[in-house]
From TrEMBL:
Protein name (Swiss-Prot/TrEMBL): Cytochrome P450
UniProt KW keywords: Heme, Iron, Membrane, Metal-binding, Transmembrane, Transmembrane helix
Molecular function terms from GO: heme binding; iron ion binding; oxidoreductase activity, acting on paired donors, with incorporation or reduction of molecular oxygen; steroid hydroxylase activity
Lineage: Eukaryota, Fungi, Dikarya, Ascomycota, Pezizomycotina
Keyword Hydrolase included in the entry's annotation: no
Top-level lineage group: Eukaryota
Binding site for heme: C491
Cofactor(s) required for function per UniProt: heme
């Protein structure tokens, strides 16, 4: 690997030519030659304007992602494929069915992968791997599918195939119903316990942001990782949020000398996981009955235990194991929590919507056959049409991330040959906001509209009575909506996320009377406006609200 990450591509290349006066002149000359070369490349799709070819766009992507994405959005209005450069690396920005098929379809899954992105960005930063450790992944050419690519894995045991096993553990133990549902039930009971701390019948002032960032995050972390993660490091949840604020910069490789907080917050977060890991390892009996349990208190859910077991077996340093689990905590928390906050805010600021959803949630109540008590059915919750529409609308507008793949073999998209070595990106912000796909009368695509994905049909009962029934029907087409990515790398936690968010909202709406007090700034001072997306998170996944909402709630059940 010549360079380790995006920042290196830009700054090391640039820095190498700026260390002396001679080098500066040489650098300027090289840039000029490169600029002319870029300008002369007329074949292929249109190029995104770049005032300093190969550099300006890359820096804007990293440091002012929202402005960069607005430019991309405008540029892709009349083209569904555009190109820009990061130094010499061509990056293709694509929208529409052909690109989505190329990126997510099975046909090209060995030609268009996420492996280079993992090796260059996630592994050396998020996962704290050194060069030799990253090299082990580079050397595994066998692919991520169960059947290795021909001629790549002779004599290599399946457990030593890194890409495949890593993917497989996530998909198997997060996604398969027999492993998913015990986790969902455990999450609901933890969330329920957290909410039961509020006294019955008493109005209490609550910050929607603080409540979700604490209760939801802690319940989800305890579900997947067991109680000791927070038990041994009581400020773990705050450590996570401090790290989360800097995660994008960490992943693109902003070095310590530019922003020490990026690395300090990550180290502090990973140290907490390290403490939990050491504790679990010192007590776990790997030959005992808990090894295959759906859940046990030391390592929590099976997905986490299987990851630990496999990483020990394949000889990773403890720090790498802790940091890799940190990446899972990041996946678990950084999107679901802001999405829940947004959904609650949208409902609470619109009393008629809140009432409609409360009525819908009431239909998901069932009688527990064991206790005779009323309880929420998570399966009924995730099928509620209005709640699903609000979820879809929130993901459509609030998840802002470019799904990125590296092109290992040339592929053709919309008649253009994308050469080997290029990067292919599908920007959610473009596809998720296309007017021709998503707009409805009086409701432009850029606006949140709770009912965008709802249809009403007439239903006739046995007595011939007609009633209007609400059904969920996604407004756009699937190739313009990919908040969870797609293909073999699609988010393995997506089903858990949906159950988690719907259960949390179902519990809150069925157990509390809620009244809006008002909007505040994040420091608690009054705000004269409602929340907007915090653009500092553009490109990093979920964009949380930049304002808080103060409410009063009273527990009724
Ligand atoms: C609303 C919630 C969520 C959203 C919008 C979301 C979105 C995403 C996206 C866009 C990706 C990249 C997919 C690709 O490259 O095609 C991803 C990957 C991932 N997500 Fe999620 N996610 C969410 C919740 C979760 C949860 C709850 C978990 C864990 C329980 C999780 C675990 C992961 C993991 C481990 C990966 C990396 C998979 C890999 O390396 O191949 N996510 N997620």
């Amino acid at each position: 690997m010549a360079s380790t990450n995006l920042f290196s591509w830009v700054l090391v290349d640039l820095g190498e030519v700026t260390t002396s006066a001679v080098a500066v002149s040489l650098g300027a000359l090289l840039l000029l030659i490169f600029a002319l070369q870029v300008a002369r490349r007329e074949d292929g799709p249109p190029t995104l304007n770049d005032p300093i070819p190969g550099i300006f766009n890359a820096l804007q992507f990293m440091f002012d992602n929202n402005t960069f994405m607005l430019r991309v959005q405008r540029a892709l209005k009349n083209n569904n494929l555009m190109r820009f450069y990061i130094i010499r690396k061509p990056v293709y920005l694509a929208t529409g069915p052909a690109a989505v098929k190329a990126m997510f379809g099975r046909e090209l899954m060995h030609h268009v992968t996420n492996q280079e992105q993992m090796v260059l960005f996630a592994m050396p930063t998020l996962q704290k791997m050194n060069r030799e450790e990253v090299r082990r992944w580079v050397d595994d050419k066998s692919g991520a599918t169960k059947t290795p690519l021909p001629g790549t894995a002779e004599g290599i045991p399946q457990r030593q195939r890194l890409w495949y096993t890593y993917e497989h553990i996530h998909v198997e133990y997060l996604g398969k119903p027999q492993n998913l549902h015990p986790l969902v039930n455990l999450f609901s009971s933890k969330m329920e316990l957290a909410l039961e701390r509020y006294p019955i019948g008493q109005w209490v002032t609550v910050s929607v942001q603080d409540m979700c960032r604490q209760e939801l995050a802690a319940s989800a972390m305890e579900t997947l990782f067991g109680p000791e993660l927070i038990g041994l490091t009581p400020d773990f949840v705050s450590r996570f949020w401090r790290f989360d604020r800097n995660a994008f910069k960490l992943i693109v490789g902003v070095p310590k000398w530019i922003d020490p907080a990026v690395h300090e917050t990550h180290n502090h977060f990973v140290d907490g996981i390290g403490t939990w890991l050491e504790n679990g390892l010192s007590k776990m009996n790997w030959n005992g009955p808990d090894t295959d349990a759906n859940w046990e208190p030391l390592f929590g859910g099976r997905v986490v235990r299987e990851l630990v077991k496999w990483m020990l077996e394949t000889n990773w340093r403890k720090e790498v194991i802790a940091a890799t689990l940190g990446a899972l905590i990041f996946g678990l928390t950084s999107n679901s929590v802001p999405v829940t906050i947004w959904m609650l805010m949208e409902m609470i600021q619109d009393p008629s919507l809140l009432q409609a959803v409360r009525e819908e949630v009431a239909t998901a109540m069932v009688i527990d056959p064991k206790t005779g008590n009323q309880t929420l059915s998570s399966h009924k919750l995730v099928a509620l049409p209005l709640l699903q529409s609000i979820w879809t609308e929130t993901l459509r507008l609030r998840i802002n991330f470019n799904i990125t793949r590296d092109v290992k073999q040339p592929v053709t998209i919309n008649g253009h040959l994308i050469p080997k070595g290029s990067i292919l990106q599908a920007p959610m912000m473009v596809s998720h906001c296309m007017e021709d796909v998503w707009a409805a009368d009086g409701h432009p695509a850029s606006e949140f509209w709770a009912e965008r994905h709802v249809k009403y049909i007439d239903e006739i009962d046995a007595l011939g009575q007609i009633s209007r029934k609400r059904v969920f029907a996604m407004a756009g087409d699937a190739t313009s909506y990919f908040p969870f990515g797609g293909g073999i790398n699609i988010c393995p936690g997506r089903q858990f996320a949906k159950f988690e968010v719907f259960s949390a909202i179902g519990l809150i709406l069925s157990r509390f009377d809620i009244e809006l007090i008002g909007w505040t700034q994040t420091d608690g001072k009054p705000s004269d406006r409602a929340a907007r997306a915090d653009l500092r998170y553009s490109g990093a996944g979920a964009m949380p609200p930049d304002r808080d909402m103060k409410i009063r709630w009273r527990r009724i059940a």
